[in-house]
# Entry
Amino acid sequence: MSPAEIEEAIAASGDLLEDSVDIIDELQGTFLFADAELDRAFARAYLNHQGPQQEKRYAAELATEKERTARDQAFLIFKYAERKANAVDRRISGLQTRSKSANNAMNTYGGR
# Structure
């Protein structure tokens, strides 16, 4: 890659990383909402269960399976987006290193 191509790749990756911030924020909010929904549903199911005390937790676990699945899916999507953003960040770091190396080589050899 030429220094100009490296700089273009850094700029494009930077734009991608910048866009990912809003996406990750939204996905984190979705996860936190789903987590709170699970907590509320669990509490309702626990308190509403008619039976012995030792059954309440298990009844609430079973009653909130849908909410738990939604929370877990939201968490996985949020974490995936974070990993993708981190990969773009690492790519930018690698490109910056290549850019410095290319610039040093050009300075050492007089731009040849």
